[in-house]
Amino acid sequence: MEITPRQLINPGVLKLDEKRREAVTRFKEAVARAKFLNSDEKRNWTVLGYLLTGEQLMEAQKLIIGQDLKYMKNIEVVLPKEK
């Protein structure tokens, strides 16, 4: 994913129509659910979501979900022993 200088300088060039609003909402929900990110990282990813285009949002959302699945796969589930 490549972020253009124009996106960083003037993020207001993106239209906030209903389709984009839904994409940003899905992205923010994926970030909020991510177990591998701390609160500062979640805030940074959320802000980044407003700078990304629609295609970049989908790519970043897939990246976060994929990393979260890898993280959860590595967590050992401790079950109580039967008596």
Written account of the structure:
It is elongated and about 60 Å long. With 83 residues, it is mainly α. Helix 2 (18-33) packs antiparallel against helix 3 and helix 2 packs parallel to helix 4 (54-74). It contains four helices and no strands.
Topology:
Elements: H1 5-9, H2 18-33, H3 39-51, H4 54-74
Helix pairs in contact: 2-3, 2-4
Give a quick rundown of the structure.
With 83 residues, this protein is mostly helical. It has helices at residues 5-9, 18-33, 39-51, 54-74.
Question: Tags for this entry?
Answer:
4 helices; single chain; mainly alpha; 83 residues; elongated
Strand-residue proportion: under 5%
Radius of gyration: 16 Å
Tell me, rounded to a whole number, the average pLDDT. 85
Helix content estimate: 55-70%
Task: Please tell me what the overall shape is.
Answer: elongated
Poorly predicted runs are none
Which sequence of SSEs, written as H and E, runs from N to C?
A: HHHH
Structural category: mainly alpha
- How many E-type strands? 0
Q: Termini distance?
A: 52 Å
Q: Quick one: biggest sheet? A: none
Number of DSSP helices? 4
Question: What is the quaternary state of this protein?
Answer: single chain
